[in-house]
C-alpha cells in the first residue's frame, strides 16, 4: 500500500504555494488599496475583458457565485463597478468598471507586475515560461477531470 506524504503530494504543494502567494498579494492589496483578493480579481478581469455578467466572472475567476457576488457588492458600494442591463439576456446584468475603477486598476497593475517580478526574480525567463506552460497543462487537466 502506498502512503500519502503531503510534502511529496504535488496537489498539496501547489495549493500551499498558491495560498502563500495569495496571502502575500492580499496583504499588499489590502494595505495599499483596501481590496480583498476576490475584489482585485474582479477588477483585473473586468479591465482585461470588459463588461460581463457575474456568471461569466465566475467562469473567468474560478470563484463561486457567492464570492463573486460579495466582491461585486463591495466594489459597487465603493463606486468602482456599475451594473447595467444585459441586452442579450434580460435576466442578468453586465458588470463593468467605472472611471474610478479604471483609475484604481491603473494604480494596481504596476504594483501587481512589480510583485510578480519580485516573486520570480530567481527564475530564468525559460523557467518562467516552463512554469506558465505547466500551469496551463494543470488547468487543462483539471477541466478534463471536471468533465469539460
Overview of the molecule:
The protein has 148 residues and is mainly alpha-helical. It has six helices and three strands, in the order H-H-E-H-H-E-E-H-H. Strands 1-3-2 form a three-stranded antiparallel β-sheet. Helix 1 (10-33) packs across helix 5, helix 2 packs across helix 4 (65-77) and helix 3 crosses helix 4 (65-77). It is globular.
CATH first level: which class? Mainly Alpha
The residue fraction in helices comes out at: 55-70%
Reported by name, the CATH topology is Arc Repressor Mutant, subunit A
Regarding quaternary structure, how should these chains be classified?
single chain
Distance between the termini: 32 Å
Provide the spatial order of strands within the biggest beta sheet: 1-3-2
Beta-strand proportion? 5-15%
Envelope shape: globular
What is the average per-residue confidence, as pLDDT, rounded to a whole number?
Answer: 92
What is the C-alpha radius of gyration, as a whole number of Å? 18 Å
Topology pattern, helix = H, strand = E = HHEHHEEHH
Give a quick account of the main beta sheet: strands, pairing sense, barrel closure: 3 strands, antiparallel
Proper CATH architecture: Orthogonal Bundle
A few lines on this structure:
This protein is mostly helical and 148 residues long. It has helices spanning 10-33, 37-49, 54-61, 65-77, 99-119, 125-145, and strands at residues 52-53, 81-85, 93-97.
List keywords for this structure.
148 residues; Arc Repressor Mutant, subunit A; 3-stranded antiparallel sheet; 6 helices
Amino acid at each position: 500500500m502506498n502512503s500519502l506524504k503531503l510534502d511529496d503530494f504535488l496537489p498539496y504543494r501547489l495549493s500551499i504555494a498558491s495560498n502563500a502567494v495569495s496571502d502575500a498579494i492580499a496583504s499588499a492589496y489590502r494595505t495599499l488599496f483596501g481590496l480583498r483578493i476576490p475584489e482585485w480579481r474582479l477588477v483585473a478581469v473586468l479591465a482585461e475583458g470588459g463588461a460581463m455578467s457575474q456568471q461569466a466572472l465566475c467562469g473567468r475567476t474560478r470563484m463561486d457565485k457567492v464570492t463573486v457576488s460579495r466582491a461585486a457588492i463591495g466594489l459597487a458600494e465603493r463606486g468602482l463597478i456599475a451594473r447595467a442591463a444585459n441586452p442579450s439576456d434580460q435576466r442578468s446584468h453586465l458588470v463593468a468598471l467605472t472611471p474610478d475603477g479604471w483609475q484604481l486598476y491603473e494604480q494596481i497593475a504596476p504594483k501587481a507586475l512589480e510583485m510578480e517580478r519580485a516573486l520570480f526574480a530567481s527564475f530564468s525567463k525559460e523557467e518562467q515560461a516552463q512554469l506558465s506552460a505547466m500551469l496551463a497543462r494543470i488547468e487543462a487537466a483539471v477541466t478534463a477531470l471536471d468533465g469539460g
